[in-house]
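Module 6 notes. Inverse folding takes a fixed backbone as the condition and produces residue identities as the prediction. Think of it as a translation problem where the source language is geometry and the target language is the twenty amino acids. Below is one complete input and output pair. Work through it position by position during the lab.
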């Protein structure tokens, strides 16, 4: 997941495919769902939606229950894919189910995804509320990799609500977060790619998962279930 967080999707895919093969070879359904969900998210963020859809079908979604962490991770990946496909109502419904199964509090990932669905539906006040809630959670946990993303997303919502001063302040704070994270990265292509894509994201043009420029990559291999 580290490579995916650094926008190094080709590297992330290679590691995740190897992990998925390993999970299947040891018959670990828990790890299989967790890795497949993460790989689906990577494919979705690259804009490889047909491959992401096939992978989820291989994993048996939507028959999965939402009672375990791994199945909820796959469900979050499904939400990301639905957002990218424009199936907003379905995405919002699944977000609400995930929120119920999470118990107390709003999980950061679910809150961000539900905010994206709200924005797509024009329900900006609800999007703002969810993002402020999960921003407070991420800040309390010192989850800096999430903080800058949430600030950028919240800035996008506030800009849509004609509150440019607050949006600019949040984007400035997000850029400062990125600069602080940059100090911990080694010099080289990963560092340059992370900074470039992070700064693009801070532009706040959209909250839905987006495709980013990528090098040509092989299609995900079909694997028989064991």
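Target side of the pair, the amino acids:
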């Amino acid at each position: 997941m580290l490579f995916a967080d650094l926008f190094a999707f080709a590297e992330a895919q290679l590691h995740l495919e190897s992990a998925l093969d390993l999970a299947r070879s040891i018959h670990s359904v828990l790890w299989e769902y967790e890795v497949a969900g993460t790989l689906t998210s990577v494919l979705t963020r690259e804009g490889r939606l047909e491959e992401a859809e096939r992978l989820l079908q291989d994993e048996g979604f939507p028959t999965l229950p939402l009672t375990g962490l791994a199945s909820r991770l796959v469900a979050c990946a499904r939400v990301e894919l639905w957002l990218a496909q424009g199936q907003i109502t379905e995405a919002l419904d699944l977000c609400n189910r995930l929120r119920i199964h999470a118990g107390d509090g709003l999980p950061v990932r679910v809150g961000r995804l539900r905010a994206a669905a709200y924005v797509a539906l024009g329900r900006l006040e609800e999007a703002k509320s969810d993002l402020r809630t999960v921003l407070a959670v991420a800040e309390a946990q010192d989850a800096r990799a999430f903080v800058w993303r949430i600030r950028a997303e919240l800035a996008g919502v506030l800009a849509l609500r004609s509150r440019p001063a607050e949006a600019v302040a949040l984007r400035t704070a997000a850029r400062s977060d990125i600069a602080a994270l940059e100090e911990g990265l080694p010099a080289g292509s990963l560092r340059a790619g992370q900074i470039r894509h992070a700064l693009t994201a801070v532009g706040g043009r959209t909250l839905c998962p987006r495709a980013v420029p990528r090098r040509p990559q092989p299609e995900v291999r079909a694997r028989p279930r064991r």
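Reference fact for the lab report: The chain is about 70% helix and 0% strand.
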